[in-house]
């Protein structure tokens, strides 16, 4: 059977099928690309693949392991009332010593918990409850900050006012013994350091690194943030990030820290947590899930996770 122009009907149908199939593949490819970008996989997976295979420590190899618990501590999460938030703070202050006072490291220190307290949820009564826990040696309080559509001056003012409140009113933070400056660790809310979200939300300040350095930030502990498009290309490192004029996300790359090397004056120390694929946990039994060091009730710490963390060091 032929159609009027002489082309066999079966050939015409085959071309229609091919065109439709290519269209479907293009749509699927577009969906996958958007998904990859939304989860920031394009930011870190190339680095991850380039650094494989991951080193596994030998069973008889002595290791010094430093564990930093960096809590995005938000007592009012879920928009609860003050009484509920205060009861959450009390539970931490009362229960933590009961659970962990019996344990210590080689220096006699109990497990340390760092409460990165949000500047935008400042309530004196919450910090008054936490302060005794810190003075008893169970951890520390550092700075967490959420902002949106901010300015450099606004960001600086928030940091300086909150830093001074923590130190002078609550006896928290500490001073650099050489400079006398109040110093603090930092976590950026919503991981949007240096305006790193592609949509520009939850920040607004492209050049936050110099402001952090000027106001006494000794290190940033924000990352990893995957699966998020704020995830930098640098993974599983302790490194120095430098402000890049005219660019957002200056911390994407930097200078790896090394034992015996002096800290650069204009670099902010970035201390990252582990990031890798967890082949022991697979979606649909096929796709590996992401191990990003996040500690959740649904994904608590366990020895199998510790092995993954150590393999990224």
Concise summary:
This protein is of the alpha/beta class and 313 residues long.
Contiguous low-pLDDT stretches (5 residues minimum) are none
The oligomeric status of these chains comes to single chain
User: In one word, what is the shape?
Assistant: globular
The percent of residues in helical segments reads: 25-40%
Strand-residue fraction?
15-25%
**Derived structural class:** alpha/beta
- The number of helical segments is 7
Please count the beta strands (DSSP E, at least 2 residues each).
Answer: 11
State the major sheet: 6 strands, mixed
Our measurement of the CA-to-CA distance between the termini, rounded to an integer number of angstroms, reads 68 Å
Radius of gyration: 24 Å
Order of helix and strand elements from N to C terminus:
HHEHEHEHEEHEEEEEEH
- Taking all residues together, what is the mean pLDDT? 90
| Number of separate domains | 2
